[in-house]
Amino acid sequence: MTAPDVAGRRPLTARSVALVLGAVGATAGIGAVATTPALDSRWYRRLSTPPWQPPGAVFGPVWSVLYALIATSMLLTRSRGGEREGPLFVLFGTNLALNLAWTLIFFRGRSPLAAGVEILVLEGPTVALIVRAWPASRLAALLLVPYALWVAFATALTWAIWARNR
What we know:
CATH class: Mainly Alpha
Organism: Baekduia soli
Subcellular location: Membrane
Shape: elongated
Radius of gyration: 17 Å
Number of helices: 7
Number of strands: 0
Family: Belongs to the TspO/BZRP family.
Number of domains: 1
Order of helices and strands: HHHHHHH
Protein name: Tryptophan-rich sensory protein
CATH architecture: Up-down Bundle
Helix content: over 70%
Keywords: Membrane, Transmembrane, Transmembrane helix
């Protein structure tokens, strides 16, 4: 194990970087593979969506930025918190799994209701990530705020879609 510097930081190992980038990349990639064909499906095209839903072209760039922020946050936390941040990384993995689950439930399962319930669950670990990252790195915690706000927006959007299509 590498000794921390005077600020308590540890150099990031290639393994840590690979795990964080791999987890975020896998979530993004599987999510994109699950979403892309569904966007052309008859089911999705027939959904009544609220007028405040952003255009489809917005979602890819927004998620790219959010995933980059999530990965950066986790790497900052890892470099500042070292090995004692294990529970935070369990929470990180849980959050990514729930993030992906929403995509699969909504687009593959075609269930806005179930996706609405699931995204309410997702918001908890999303906020918890911010709270748990704060002691290790305020910047890491702040980088997660746009993600939490987007999940809150997506929650409202999911429930609005459900309400318009039940």
